[in-house]
Amino acid sequence: MRGVAKRRGFLPQVTLVFFTHAPYTCHMNQGHKFISIEGTDGSGKKTQIDLLCKYLLGQGKHVEKIAFPNYESESSGPVKMYLGGELGGSASCLDAYQASALYAVDRLCTMKKVLSKLPDDSYVIFDRYVPSNMIHQAGKIKSKKERDKFLKWVDKFEYETLKLPRPDVVFFMDVAPSVSLEIVKQRTTQKTGKKIDIHERDPKHLTDAYNAAKYVAKKFKWTTVDCVKDGKFKSIEEIHDIIINHIK
Ligand SMILES: Nc1ncnc2c1ncn2[C@@H]1O[C@H](COP(=O)(O)OP(=O)(O)OP(=O)(O)O)[C@@H](O)[C@H]1O
Ligand SMILES: [Mg+2]
Asked: Which H, E and C letters describe 92-105, residue by residue?
């Protein structure tokens, strides 16, 4: 976690940023708070992000909501090619490193534009961010040693080499595939111009991603939001309260 201390005096305001888990050497955050909401497909991310934004706006905060892949931007082009099946008919057409690079390019271009325009002390809420590479792509790697090597690579590549801001909080929406798969199946999506994308039409990818997510959430000490009770989704309000209690 990151601690932020502000000192006022006759010197200009100084913001001290210190870390207990990893050095943050690259990006000045100007008092912004970065919150990443993660989870496998259909785990209720957008539903909760909309409520969280509404809550923060009600608190008078400046809020920026950013969804990745950023389908509004041309930077998502390579990801669209991958998810739309142009590079191969299944998620395995690119290995974890190859696919991660495409998503990282989208984030780099998007954040380059967004960060320069953010008012100080903004809340930036990500609907999927760097941790999604860890969740969706780590699931492709079975060996623990190789998976850990990949996770270390993602962390270094995106946060240090590409200088993307490291989230202050990562929420992992924990929804077992047995619950979310039904939701994914029911849904049609226009995201890539096809009915469902190559991740969504592959139940094995969902299960692999879920298992990877549980592993990575523990390893990186993300905040797990337990969204299911007795095999069913908890109510939207109940989940919202869990999230708000962590933000306060
Ligand atoms: N707690 C809940 N109880 C019941 N239904 C829910 C709950 N949360 C979300 N849903 C429903 O589940 C569906 C998926 O939710 P949402 O779009 O928020 O998930 P998502 O994680 O953003 O999905 P994706 O990964 O595909 O972007 C929506 O139809 C939403 O209304
Ligand atoms: Mg969504």
From this structure: HHCCHHHHHHHHHH
